[in-house]
Amino acid sequence: MGIEDTRKRPRDYLYRAAASYIRAHAIGTLPASCAKELFGDPVTSLIIHRAASSAAVTGTPSWAGALAEQVVDDSIMAIATVSAAAGLIARGMKLDFGRRASIRVPGRILDANDAGQWTAEDHPAVMRVQRMTSGPTLTPHKLIVLTSYTREMAEQSNIEAVSRALISESSALALDKAMFGTQADDGVTPGGLLNGATQVTGVATGGGATGMAADISKLVGALVAAYGGRDVVLIMNPQQATSLKLLAGPKFDLPILPSSSVPAGTVISIEASSFVSAFDAVPQFEAVTAPLFHFEDTSPTDITGGSPSPAVPVRSPFQLDSYTLRMILKAHWTMRVATHVAYMSNVSW
């Protein structure tokens, strides 16, 4: 307990903080006390005290600020095996919101003429001004993950593993569903990458390796036509991902990110170097006490006044002898070049 395990990754402290909050709520003490009792490390306490001393902890000491950013970054990378969105985030530009209301990201104009010009000896070089667009603006969008724990789970010593599984799985589903959707940014949910993306027509028939090769070539070609193609990532339904791996063989070297949130038959190509995302340095955790919760994972409504009223299913944590943990993470993403996303529907392989 007194000696910190140096093999711990930054994300481990995030899940330790979550476990400390739910354990503290279960036994009626402070999260910091539970962190000390359960884990005995100062880093978890640092994350727990973030809200009370954010200016002094995550801003002033350089090591603390760096750790806070690593915690979220490492947590996102940890779910890359189950989330294509996390895999794309790890490959793109990552920014920290901090306490900023918005971040303006410079756009990209890819033109070989701006790179310079071959010049003969004793001849003047061509002077060019690097062109930059104003680019997109990232504003914090609030992702809330609510997870429920029974008293027995909260009081067990393996609550860290339980909270890690529930939070990471919920975050993976939420990220993929929003990121690879077609919705416009409404100020609540970030815009899906397929909103306004270039749709490419696949081969009508053929399927198999021949049809697959033609489809992938057209998707990459759409990015090349927009001065992309250097850092292509393919995102698709697990069914197409399996077919591609079987048909293409081990020498196929483009990254393939499977996601169940992508409809079957849809394949997306993205220039990863044009993708940018921003997150809070540290999520907010809170053990929530409420008499009733609407246990709905798709379209939750007010318990009364909605349709149906009362909402169903509604459960009482008191009656169930359970607790609820709320995680709030502010995030946003966008493309620095809007045309660096292309997709194809109804592929035949």
Tell me the helix content. Answer: 25-40%
Number of domains: 2
Mean pLDDT over the full residue set: 79
Strand content: 15-25%
Overall shape: it is: globular
Number of strands: 14
Q: Helix tally?
A: 11
Cα-atom radius of gyration: 24 Å
Descriptive report:
This protein is α+β, with helices and mostly antiparallel strands. The chain folds into two domains: 198 residues, no CATH class; 88 residues, hypothetical protein PF0899 domain (hypothetical protein PF0899 fold). The protein contains eleven helices and 14 strands. Strands 1, 4, 9, 10 and 13 form a five-stranded mixed sheet that branches. Helix 1 crosses helix 5 and helix 2 packs antiparallel against helix 3. The radius of gyration is 24 Å and the shape is globular. The protein starts with 9 loop residues before the first helix and ends in a 5-residue tail after the last strand. The N terminus is likely disordered.
Give a quick set of tags describing it.
hypothetical protein PF0899 fold, five-stranded mixed beta sheet, 2 domains, 14 strands, 349 residues, alpha+beta
Quick structural summary:
This protein has 349 residues and is an alpha+beta fold. It folds into 2 domains: 10-98 and 138-190 and 278-333, no CATH class; 198-275 and 335-344, hypothetical protein PF0899 fold, CATH 3.30.2320.10.
SSE topology:
Blueprint: H1 10-27, H2 31-38, H3 42-48, H4 54-59, H5 62-78, H6 84-91, E1 93-96, E2 103-104, E3 137-138, E4 141-150, H7 151-155, H8 159-179, E5 198-199, H9 208-225, E6 232-236, H10 238-248, E7 256-258, E8 267-271, E9 275-279, E10 284-288, E11 293-294, E12 314-315, H11 317-320, E13 322-335, E14 341-344
Parallel strand pairs: 1-9, 5-14, 6-7
Antiparallel strand pairs: 2-3, 4-13, 6-8, 8-14, 9-13, 10-13, 11-12
